[in-house]
Amino acid sequence: MRVHVTDLVSGDRLSRDTFNQFGLHVLSKGTILNYADISKLQQHQIEYVEIENRSSAATADMPAARTLETIVNPKWLPTVQPLYESAVTSFKNIYDIAKQEGVVNKQEISDAVQPLLDNFQMERDVVSLLLLLNTSDDYTYQHSVQVGMLSYYLASWLGYPKEEALLISKAGYLHDIGKSKISHDILNKPGKLTEEEFDEVKKHTLFGHDLIMQWFGDEPYLAVSAVQHHERIDGSGYPYGLKGEDIHPVAKIISVVDIYSAMISERVYRQKRDLLFVLKELYRMSFNELDPHITQTFIKHMIPNFIGKKAKLETGEIGTIIMTHPIEFFRPLIQVDDQFIDLTVERNYVIQEIYL
Q1: Hey, what long-range contacts does 26-33 have (CB within 8 A, 24 or more apart)?
Q2: Is the pLDDT of residue 349 over 60?
Q3: Tens digits of per-residue pLDDT, 84-113?
Q4: Could you please report the per-residue DSSP string of 225-278?
Q5: Domain boundaries defined on the chain
Q6: How far apart are alpha carbons 232 and 249 in whole angstroms?
Q7: Within 10 Å of residue 109's Cβ, how many Cβ atoms?
């Protein structure tokens, strides 16, 4: 059904991809709209969109949406941040118990992640979440929480129903549980690992599989994701060097978000990298190492979240991202003071950093 943007309500689902008057992609088919999305459509001067027929029952089940002001100006952070920090602390405890006793407490995992998931399901601006919540502390545990969160989003963007997306999210949270069996000194070594140390790190995939099978049995996606999330479709991964279709689809999902979270995080041996730069790296990897459809779906849905963010150019100039390009994802239109710089035309400009 065709609806004017002023008549949209939170919970409406787009039935077609939406483009602005310049042909630039704004929102994807299947997007469940919230007030931030509706605001984005208005900012792009889009008047009408196509949505699926509304179901009164489904609309009644929708969580209460935040106001537009709350989403554009993220005052929700005081609500989400304690839940995020609590989940990180809980995962530290889960890892410690797994290391000391070889036990993974299923109920503790559910208690740690469910409040966070309830809030993340209402928040679609993933870039803001990562910029606001990502810190240099407790990398291993933050990484687990981020991969769980991003796995949920990516599974949803790929069309998995909510129930499956939640299971995939759980697999993301647990993908690195095998690291509880790896020496802390190796995991936090500030320099390059020796060949023997790297061989030891690789074992976390096998350890994770065994721990999950012991405590969760054949619960969908968990064990296979733990053992396969470092496999690559060209056969260059580990532990088994699997290729293409031999790798489980959910493990392919977790591979993408695992790399993204790892690269945007600060480590003892490496500074974090810019969110947009890492998407470029994923795009490069989608031609040989990562599943192209999964990876490019992730990129396509992440890119619109950069609209409205600040961009520091290598020239030192700072502007605001106004529009993104449907093909040249990483060369948006940027406003610097009263000047508009189209990076698809001005090829000598390069974005150095993205921030709020």
Answers
A1: 26/304, 27/304, 28/157, 28/300, 28/301, 30/157, 30/159, 31/124, 33/8, 33/9
A2: yes
A3: 888 888 999 999 899 898 888 788 888 887
A4: HHHHTT--TBS--SSS--BGGGS-HHHHHHHHHHHHHHHHS-BTTB----HHHH
A5: 2-70, 74-304, 307-355
A6: 12
A7: 21
Q: Which CATH superfamily is domain 74-304 in?
A: Hypothetical protein af1432 (1.10.3210.10)
Q: Could you tell me if 306 and 297 are in contact, meaning their C-beta atoms sit under 8 angstroms apart?
A: no
pLDDT value, residue 270: 59
Joined tokens for residue 314: 């290598």
Residue matched to tokens 């140390």: 197
Pull the structure tokens for residue 224. 């296979």
One DSSP character per residue, 128-170 reads: HHHHHH--SS-HHHHHHHHHHHHHHHHHHHTT--HHHHHHHHH
Supply the mean pLDDT for the chain: 85
Q: Say which residues have a Cβ less than 8 Å from residue 297's Cβ, sequence separation at least 6.
A: 154, 157, 158
* Check whether domain 2-70 has CATH 3.90.105.10, yes or no: yes
Supply the pTM of this predicted model: 0.77
- Which pLDDT does position 72 carry in this prediction? 41
Longest Cα–Cα distance of the chain, Å, equals 62
Q: How many CB atoms lie within 10 A of CB 297?
A: 19
pLDDT band of residue 189 (cuts 50, 70, 90) is: confident
C-alpha angle 123-12-322 in degrees, rounded to nearest 5: 60
| pLDDT exceeds 80 at position 34 | no
